[in-house]
């Protein structure tokens, strides 16, 4: 069907090419001419067929317009807002240019919050990479077809439950006299109380974003030809050496791609700090939230929101250098 | 080779971040707009707005901005039936959100807002709400005297709305830890309870610290916890910074505090009566009290938008929401104290002991222990302009909890 349509198209296109000829002074060919409407659409498809740039423009302009208007324009508005201020009394926006918001960003409080957010994102990324590699390796290279399907389902299963429900489940596990404390008490270690702390946040983040690390590493590992590993063995490399010199470097784009997910998702989160964080757990997102919700200080919130964007741009440049996008 | 690139990438990230940071701080040397000040407080912009002498025929519609739970079908449906005014309510999540929604006098869209005391002055002086003719609201004469013309919604004898309900912020404690009722807020600043304290994650909490300081350090001269000069403000912030390492969690949601106490993670904290009631109903060994220093609290007002498109329905709503029966319904539903004195017996009908539980029968002295939330402004009540405005409260709070 597709092929036939395509052929039809071309015939029409060809015919319409000839039918435009008279304009250029040549006599019209002696052929039964199609109706006006058919002729019009034929002319359009011919024009499109000949001009690839026009085809590309028409296909891409709706999504591009969406991207420009909805996405970039809103970012631009935010960027502009960051240079305004609000009247401390009526909370009305004052459209005078000021760098005060950015100056405020570079004071101790906000630097430490930004630092904490980046550090947590980095630690969670490393944790997930370490946890994900063995799982992904087993799935990609050892498991049977059936085992792989089962593991994939198991990895993706948590994503079927809501984020909030999973975070609340962790509150039950981690809080005082919670499941974890009960377990440690039973095995004789004594009760532990790590609920509402940065350790709790680290555990919850690492758990929540793990599937986003496993999937890309799996994809990278699956692509490595067996022959490379065999060659490594033939050349005398032991297991560890093969992992270090062949597997890991070839899987690096997978790590980089996964780390983009875990890093950016942690960087932008504010719900987990709010729910399982302790007294020292403010993230960039929480301060943005407070400035919009409580203080109604949009300009400062906008200035603060630019920070994760800048961090992610840097991160993506780094990831590109590491080859994260080479296989895309 | 690849490893090196990756390392280089990370290095680039770090250096670019540092570079951006460096550039940013270096580039910001011009004068700042932070800090308060501004013009002195004259009369509110809408003070001379004429008030109606009578309530006309309803316009058939009423658009409200309300706290969740303030426009429940139990009392909205009968209102709609009685007046023909169809109510649409939009829930505001915070005082600031309400102020934003009410910008430009409600924008010709909203008629009324159930504003809390910390939003009232911002709305009044922003010109977003206008005076109402209080004599048209019949049940108002049965209000507790304290809530008839409170300073947070009445300025220069003009009423910018009608009081609704109020509640105190209480000291919640576990009976297992405290054999007897704690007498002072000092337990929240006591090393003995380090790691087992919880307070609200809200800048207005600075007022609680200031209230405590006003009693224990009279030399600071704090008379109003919402009108703090820089030294008074700094003292409150210092107290809260000292408290910070002892705090287990700054709670954002009432449900968080409930689970903190249920699990025994915290044993003492600042709370609303709602949490106490919920915990006791669930069988927790907790109680609350208003310590001898007094307490802060919240008082809500239905305010009329400057550009209200349905003013007659709005007046009918104010007349309805202040009647004893509706006052009692809302008080019991939400767990707060009604403004109308006559609501007490009806509350007991709805739920045994509700009147006493929510202090609807309490004496004048009970009200006087509560310092109601209001917007901290640069303009102090004494006519001076040297108080710390709310925006600095917010950034100080970020510093404290950061």
Number of helices of chain A: 14
Approximately how much beta-strand content do the residues of chain B carry? Answer: 15-25%
Radius of gyration of chain B: 24 Å
Average pLDDT of chain A? 84
Structural class of chain B: alpha/beta
Would you tell me which CATH topology of the largest domain in chain A applies? MetI-like fold
Write down how many β-strands of chain A occur, each being a DSSP E stretch of 2 or more residues: 2
The portion of residues assigned to helices of chain B is: 25-40%
Instruction: Give a quick account of the main beta sheet of chain A: strands, pairing sense, barrel closure.
Output: 2 strands, antiparallel
The CATH H-level superfamily of the largest domain in chain A is MetI-like
Number of structural units classed as domains of chain B:
2
Biggest chain pair contact, residues each? A-B, 60 and 64 residues
What's the CATH topology label of the largest domain in chain B?
D-Maltodextrin-Binding Protein, domain 2
């Amino acid at each position: 069907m597709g092929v036939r349509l395509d052929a039809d198209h071309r015939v029409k296109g060809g015919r319409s090419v000839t039918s435009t000829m008279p304009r250029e002074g040549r006599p019209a060919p002696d052929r039964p001419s199609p109706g006006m409407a058919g002729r019009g659409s034929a002319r359009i498809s011919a024009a499109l067929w000949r001009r690839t740039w026009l085809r590309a423009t028409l296909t891409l302009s709706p999504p591009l317009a969406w991207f420009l208007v909805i996405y970039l324009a809103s970012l631009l508005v935010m960027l502009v807002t960051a240079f305004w201020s609000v009247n401390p009394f009526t909370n009305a926006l004052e459209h005078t240019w000021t760098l005060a918001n950015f100056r405020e960003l570079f004071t101790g409080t906000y630097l430490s919050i930004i630092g904490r957010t980046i550090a947590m994102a980095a630690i969670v990324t490393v944790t997930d990479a370490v946890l994900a590699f063995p799982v992904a390796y087993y799935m990609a290279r050892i498991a049977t077809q059936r085992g792989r399907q089962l593991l994939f389902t198991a990895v993706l299963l948590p994503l079927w439950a809501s984020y909030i429900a999973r975070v609340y489940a962790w509150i039950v596990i981690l809080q005082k006299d919670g499941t974890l404390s009960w377990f440690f008490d039973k095995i004789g270690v004594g009760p532990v109380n790590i609920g509402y702390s940065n350790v709790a946040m680290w555990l919850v983040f690492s758990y929540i974003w793990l599937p986003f690390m496993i999937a890309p590493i799996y994809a990278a590992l699956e692509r490595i030809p067996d022959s490379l590993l065999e060659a490594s063995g033939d050349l005398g490399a032991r297991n560890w050496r093969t992992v270090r010199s062949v597997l890991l470097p070839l899987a690096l784009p997978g790590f980089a791609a996964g780390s983009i997910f875990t890093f950016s998702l942690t960087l932008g989160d504010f719900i987990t700090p709010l729910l399982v964080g302790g007294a020292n757990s403010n993230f960039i997102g929480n301060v943005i939230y407070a400035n919009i919700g409580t203080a109604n200080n949009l300009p400062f919130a906008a200035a603060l929101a630019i920070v994760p964007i800048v961090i992610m741009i840097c991160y993506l440049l780094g990831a590109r250098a590491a080859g994260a996008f080479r296989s895309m | 080779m690849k490893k090196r690139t990756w390392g280089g990438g990370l290095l680039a990230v770090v250096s670019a971040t540092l570079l951006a940071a460096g550039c940013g701080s270096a580039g910001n040397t011009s004068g700042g707009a932070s800090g308060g000040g501004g013009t002195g407080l004259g009369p509110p912009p809408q003070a001379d707005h004429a008030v109606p002498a009578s309530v006309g025929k309803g316009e058939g519609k009423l658009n409200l901005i309300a706290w969740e739970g303030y426009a429940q079908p139990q009392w909205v449906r009968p209102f709609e039936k009685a007046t023909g005014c169809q109510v649409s309510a939009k829930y505001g999540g915070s005082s600031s959100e309400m102020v934003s929604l009410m910008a430009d006098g409600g924008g010709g869209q909203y008629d009324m807002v159930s504003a809390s005391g910390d939003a009232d002055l911002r709305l009044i002086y922003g010109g977003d709400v206008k005076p109402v003719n209080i004599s048209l609201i019949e049940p108002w004469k049965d209000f507790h005297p304290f809530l008839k013309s409170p300073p947070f919604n009445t300025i220069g004898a003009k009423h910018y709305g009608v009081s609704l309900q109020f509640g105190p912020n209480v000291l919640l404690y576990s009976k297992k830890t405290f054999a007897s009722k704690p007498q002072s807020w000092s337990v929240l600043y006591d090393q003995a309870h380090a790691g087992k304290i919880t307070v609200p994650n809200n800048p207005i909490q600075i007022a609680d610290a200031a209230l405590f300081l006003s009693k224990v350090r009279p030399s600071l001269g704090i008379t109003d916890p919402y009108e703090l000069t820089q030294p008074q403000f700094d003292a409150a912030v210092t107290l809260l910074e000292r408290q910070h390492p002892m705090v287990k969690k700054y709670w954002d949601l009432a449900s968080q505090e409930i689970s903190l106490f249920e699990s025994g993670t915290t044993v003492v904290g600042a709370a609303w009566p709602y949490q106490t009631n919920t915990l006791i109903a669930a069988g927790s060994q907790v109680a609350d009290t208003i310590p001898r220093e007094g307490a802060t609290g919240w008082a809500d007002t239905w305010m009329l938008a400057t550009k209200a498109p349905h003013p007659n329905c709005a007046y009918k709503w104010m007349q309805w929401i202040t009647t004893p029966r509706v006052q009692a319904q809302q008080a019991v539903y939400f767990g707060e104290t009604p403004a109308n004195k006559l609501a007490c017996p009806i509350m007991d009908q709805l739920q045994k002991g509700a009147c006493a539980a929510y202090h609807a029968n309490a004496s004048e002295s009970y009200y006087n222990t509560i310092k109601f939330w209001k917007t901290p402004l640069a303009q102090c009540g004494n006519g001076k302009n040297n108080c710390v405005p709310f925006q600095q409260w917010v950034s100080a709070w970020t510093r404290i909890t950061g």
